[in-house]
Amino acid sequence: MNAVRRHTILCVDDEPRSLETLERTLDEEFDVVCARSASEALQLLEQQRVAAVLCDQRMPGTSGVELLIRVRQQWPDTARLILSGYTDSEDIIRGLNEAGIFQYITKPWHPDHLLLALRNACRLVALESENTLLATEIRLTANQAESRIEEKKARLRQQFALDEIVRASDSPLQGICERVKRIAPYDIAVLINGPSGTGKELFARALHYNSLRADQPFVVENCGAMPDDLLASELFGHRKGAFTGAMHDHAGLFEQADGGTLFLDEIGDISPAFQVMLLRVLQEKEVRRVGDEKRRAVDVRIIAATNRDLEAEVAAGRFREDLYYRLAEMTMTLPPLAARRMDIPVLAGHFLRQASQSFAKPARGFSEEAMTALKHWHWPGNVRELQNEIRRMLVLAEQDLIGAELISPRLLRNLPDSDEPEPILEALLRRQEGWSEGSTLKDKTELLEKQLLRETMIRHRWNKSRAADELGLSRVGLRAKLERYGLEPLA
C-alpha cells in the first residue's frame, strides 16, 4: 500500500516558542521546516520545494506580507498564509492584492482551524499543479493531433498524385491523367464513365487531391440499389424523430463534405424520384434534413461515376436530362483493362508487391507462362479482378516465383486462342508436377483435379464441409481424394 503523500510546510516566526508550538501542531500531518526571519525563509525556499508558507505578520525587518510578495514573485505555485494578532485593514488589502494570500489566520489560532486551512491550501496547490499539467498535456496532444492530420493529408496528396497512378508509358491512361491535371483545380462537376473495376474512385480521389479542396473532406457514397428514404437520410441527413430509429440529429454527407468533394458512385442507379431531390440540392446548393424545415447552405464539389451510358438513359427517359447536365459539366471515360493490355504487367507487379508486403510473404515476380496467361485473359472484372487474382496466386504459392499453375482454373479454361507458337494452356499444363509428353488423359485429369482440390481447400481454409458442398462431394469422398493426392494444410 502506497504511503500518503506528506506536504511540506514552511513556518516563519521570529518567536522560537511560537515556532515550536506550530511544529508540534503540524508535525503529525505535515513535514515542517522553520525559519526565524524572512531572509532565512528565502534561503530555505531556494533549497527545497514547499507546498505552503505560513508566516507571522509582525516580524523585525521584513513583514509577513512583504515576504509573501517575494514568495509569490519567485514561487507562484506555493500557497501563502498569514498569522496575525492584528486587524490592520491596509495590511489585509495589500496581502490580498499583492501577495495573493490564501487565508488570514487570527491569533490566538485553534489547532483544528489551522490544520483545516493548511489542508485546503495544499489541496489547492495540488489541484492547480494538476490543472497546469493537464493543460500542457491537452496542448501537446492537440499539437500532435494537428501534426498527424497534416501528415495524413500530405500522405493522401502523395498517394493520389497523378504520378502514383500505375500505368505503362504507352497506356491510354496517360491522356486521362493529363486531363485530370487540367481540370482538377477548377470547381466543375465531373462525371466518370467506365466499367466496374476500372478505378473510377481512384480518379475521383486524384481529382480531389490535386484540387484547391485537397485539405478538405473527400466523402464517398455508393448510390447503387439503395432505397430512396435511406439514401436521402445518408446524403441530406435527418432530424431526431423523423422516422423510426432516428434517435438523434444526423448530418448528411453533403454537410460532412462541406468545403470538400462528394463522390457519388453508381449515380445511374438512383430512382427518378430521387433524381428530382438531388437536382434541387445541386441547383440551390442547400440541403434540408429529413423531417426538418431548416435549410443549410453547402459548398460541395460533385464527382459522380457510373458504368451505365447516361446519355442513352436520358434518351430512353430513365434519367433526367437537366440532372445529367448538372453532373456532366466535364466527362471522363476509363477504358476496360482489356483495352489497355500494356498496363497488365505493370499492374500485376504493383499488386504483387502490395500483397507480398501485406501478407509478409516474399515474391520475386511471375514466370513467363504466368504473365502470358495474365495478358491474354480479357478481365471482365478489370483492375479489381486482376488484383484479386494476384493476391490469390501469392497465397497459394510455395515458391517466390509465381507460376502459371497457380492461376484460377476458370481463367485457364477460358483463355482465348493465342498467336503464341505453343498454345497457352498446353504450356501451362507442362508446368504441372509429373507432366510429361507421354502422360495419358487420366494423368492429366488427375493433375487438374488435384489442383482444383487444393485451390478449393485453401479458399475455404481447409473447412471440409464447405469445400465438399462446393465440389458436390460428401465429406467421406472429399477426405478420400485429399488422402489420395496427399493434400494437407501448409505448415
From TrEMBL:
Coiled-coil intervals: 135-162
| Keyword Ribonucleoprotein part of the UniProt annotation | no
Please verify whether the record's keywords include ATP-binding.
yes
Q: Which residues carry this modification: 4-aspartylphosphate?
A: D56
> Per its record, what are the GO molecular function terms?
ATP binding; sequence-specific DNA binding
Pfam families the record matches: AAA_lid_14, HTH_8, Response_reg, Sigma54_activat
InterPro entries for the chain: AAA+_ATPase, AAA_lid_NorR, CheY-like_superfamily, Homeodomain-like_sf, HTH_Fis, P-loop_NTPase, Sig_transdc_resp-reg_receiver, Sigma_54_int
Instruction: Name the source's superkingdom.
Output: Bacteria
Q: Name one GO biological process term.
A: regulation of DNA-templated transcription
Q: Which residue intervals define the domain Response regulatory in the entry?
A: 8-122
Q: Which residues form the Sigma-54 factor interaction domain?
A: 166-395
Listed A to Z, the keywords are: ATP-binding, Coiled coil, DNA-binding, Nucleotide-binding, Phosphoprotein, Transcription, Transcription regulation
What is this protein identified as? Answer: Sigma-54 dependent transcriptional regulator
What is the native source organism of this protein?
Parathalassolituus penaei
Q: What is the lineage of its organism?
A: Bacteria, Pseudomonadati, Pseudomonadota, Gammaproteobacteria, Oceanospirillales
